[in-house]
From TrEMBL:
GO molecular function: double-stranded RNA adenosine deaminase activity; double-stranded RNA binding; tRNA-specific adenosine deaminase activity
SMART domains: ADEAMc
GO annotation, cellular component aspect: cytoplasm; nucleolus
InterPro entries: A_deamin (IPR002466)
Identification of the protein by name: A to I editase domain-containing protein
Pfam families in the record: A_deamin
Signal peptide stretch: none
One GO biological process term: adenosine to inosine editing
Length: 344
């Protein structure tokens, strides 16, 4: 890797998720404000800006874009473009369980629990820190009224989401309409990691994955870590804020992790579903690459995501392999939060 050619395109901080009472049925909040997750959402904003650059009428703009035209109506990354992710501490979930940071004098009594849930899917604790094994008895879909009446909002761990990116890509369902899957080339973790365990977590979940649609693959990024001397647990709880930045932004955005909105104004974050869907709809109308219906007909957010056929096929294959290998059921948010239209 030639560091002279490296560019930072997305940054984020954060360690918490929203409280269930703040969930939005208009896509106006960021549910998961853990740094890894908001960094990916910040990267998605960068991918949108690069697609928009490619579609510019100015030759110098589209020559600068990281995308090139692929086949008839799609786009892919240029051959020399790779994405590298750095995480300051081991991601929450299974990758964190066996890190030196978590080893205690009570290790022997808890070893049987660690073994029982080895590689198992884990969920974050609402508005808190740490993870718990998936409880399949609750079912795979949370209900809207249950969450609003006080049930904890369940969010999958960062370990689980990163391994999912290694199958489906970083771009998400919406961008899959336009671009081939975008995978991580490398992943570097700072402190609180167990290299052997982390590597096993990243690779083991892909072993029983069946055949995937064209362009999708079992991506195994290069894994590395930084040697950090004098590791120690930071005293006190983390702040309830998440900061994000994408290349091209004039300033940082600070999000209240309890509400999923901008801390100062309470307005929606530029990372929320509604904001990203707005950019997608603009590209969709411009490209008109799907002839299944009138281009100006409003699409519901969930419909637009489901219409990405290959992506959805790969996702179901991924969910099925997790179940068949006994690693647990992927917990989904209430479907009402994705049943919104863009306001004119």
């Amino acid at each position: 890797l030639d560091l002279r050619q490296v560019q930072v395109v997305a940054l984020s901080t954060g360690t918490k998720c929203i409280k269930g009472e703040y969930i939005s049925n208009q896509g106006l909040v960021v549910n998961d404000c853990h740094a890894e997750i908001t960094a990916r959402r910040a990267l998605v904003r960068y991918l949108y800006s690069q697609l928009e650059l490619f579609l510019s009428k100015r030759r110098e703009d589209w020559e600068e874009s990281i995308f090139v035209r692929h086949k008839e109506s799609g786009y892919r990354l240029r051959d020399n473009v790779h994405f590298h992710m750095y995480i300051s501490t081991s991601p929450c979930g299974d990758a964190r369980l066996n890190s030196p940071y978590e080893v205690t004098t009570d290790l022997h009594s808890s070893r049987h629990l660690l073994k029982k849930f080895h590689s198992h899917l884990r969920t974050k604790i609402e508005s808190g820190e740490g993870t718990l094994p998936v409880r399949s008895s609750r079912g795979a879909v949370q209900t809207w009224d249950g969450v609003l009446q006080g049930e904890q909002l369940i969010t999958m761990s960062c370990t689980d989401k990163i391994t999912r990116w290694n199958v489906l890509g970083l771009q998400g369902a919406l961008l899959s309409h336009f671009v081939e899957p975008v995978y991580l080339h490398s992943l570097t973790v700072g402190s609180l990691r167990h290299p052997g365990h982390f590597n096993r977590v990243m690779s083991q979940r892909l072993e029983c994955l069946g055949p995937l649609p064209a362009a999708y693959r079992r991506n195994q990024p290069l894994l590395s870590g930084l040697s950090v001397s004098g590791e120690c647990r930071q005293p006190g709880k983390s702040l309830c804020v998440s900061v994000n930045w994408t290349c091209g932004d004039g300033q940082l955005e600070v999000v209240n992790t309890a509400t999923g909105r901008k801390r100062d104004s309470g307005t929606p974050s530029r990372l929320c579903k509604h904001a990203l869907f707005t950019r997608w709809a603009r590209l969709y109308r411009k490209l008109s690459i799907h002839a299944s219906g009138p281009v100006d007909q409003p699409l519901m957010y969930c419909e637009a995501k489901m219409a990405a056929g290959s992506y959805q096929t790969a996702k179901q294959q991924w969910f099925r392999s997790l179940l068949e290998t006994g690693l647990g059921t992927w917990m989904k948010k209430p479907p009402e939060q994705e049943s919104f239209l863009l306001q004119d």
